[in-house]
Specification:
Layout (H helix, E strand, L loop, with lengths): L1 E5 L4 H11 L3 E6 L10 E5 L17 E4 L14 H19 L4 E7 L21 H15 L5 E7 L2 E2 L7 H10 L2 E5 L9 E2 H11 L6 E5 L7 H11 L5 E5 L17 H7 L7 H17 L1
Parallel strand pairs: 1-2, 1-4, 2-3, 4-5, 5-6, 6-10, 7-9, 8-11
Length: about 300
């Protein structure tokens, strides 16, 4: 299978490209090209803020996995950038996928489009985005679902994928916990989350390429936890108790004042997949990685 992966120098994309490269012909689209040790991976340089350059892209493809996005919208110098990359580029890629004869388009979205709630989110729940990133991802989902073309359209809503290098706060909590540094937790102990280890997130994404119908799937772990619980698991692995500093809920972001937990029953049914890496195993790997970095 010939697969184009956008955002391939990012957290999920970097791991996905390595996994796909073992069995497929992969085109890794990046804004700033990086060398790859795998011979069967072709690097494609393309800034998604700009119109796609047909001369750089393969003429024929079987699949597009669109992972590229601007996550930290507050850091953008131009307010238009999140819309250009997260929404407009998605529409351009959909048109490209159609012209290249792709059979499937996999779009990476976020559980953040739901907002937060005290009940696990199901795919049928309506959107309630509470920051600019989630707003743009909700708009991109509409673009995917409404785009013309006969290819299959798969939307994946990731919930806290984690591992070394993830842009969410889980690795930093682990590092602070094993150093004995204070970690802020809300008085309510929210949010509850069900994070998924990156290896499981990659496997779930790869399995989506074989789906034969359009689909929307929550991609998340089997175990519900909290930031305070993660800190405890990490600290105890090195023989200490975490230093938790309780703060008022009102000081946190809107997302952290409520729970962000996914119902993963549809993922389990449609992908025939149950996450393999337990929370204890995943946190232990982060602890080991943090300790090895400290020693090097």
């Amino acid at each position: 299978m010939r697969v184009l992966v956008t955002g391939s120098s990012g957290f999920i994309g970097g791991h996905l490209v390595k996994g796909l490269g073992e069995h497929h012909e992969v085109f890794a689209l990046m804004r700033q090209p990086r060398p790859t040790p795998q011979r069967d991976i072709t690097v494609v340089q393309q800034d998604l803020r700009d119109p796609l350059d047909p001369g750089r892209l393969p003429r024929r493809l079987d699949a597009v996995v669109h992972l590229a996005a601007i996550l930290f919208t507050d850091a953008c110098q131009d307010d238009a950038e999140p819309f250009l990359v997260n929404v407009v580029a998605t529409w351009r890629l959909l048109a490209y996928a159609r012209s290249a004869g792709a059979r499937v388009f996999v779009h990476a979205s976020t559980g953040g489009i739901y907002g937060s709630s005290d009940h696990p989110f199901r795919e049928e729940d309506g959107p309630n985005p509470m920051d600019l990133y989630s707003v743009t991802k909700a708009q991109a989902e509409l673009a995917v679902q409404g785009a013309p073309g006969t290819f299959r359209k798969i939307v994946l809503r990731y919930f806290y994928p984690y591992g070394p290098g993830t842009p969410n706060k889980i690795p930093e909590i682990v590092r602070r916990a094993i150093r004995g540094e204070p970690i802020k937790v809300l008085r309510s102990r929210k949010p509850a989350i069900n994070p998924m280890h990156i290896s499981d997130a990659v496997e779930a994404t790869v399995r989506c390429l074989d789906l034969d119908t359009d689909d929307v799937l929550n991609i998340a772990g089997s175990e519900v936890t909290s930031f305070g619980d993660i800190a405890q698991r990490a600290a105890r692995r090195v023989g200490r108790e975490p230093v938790l500093r309780v703060i008022a809920d009102e000081t946190a972001s809107l997302y952290e004042r409520g729970n962000v937990v996914a119902d993963i029953s549809r993922m389990q049914r449609h992908l025939d997949f149950v996450p393999r890496v337990s929370l204890d195993q995943g946190i232990s790997r982060l602890v080991d990685d943090a300790r090895s970095q400290a020693e090097s």
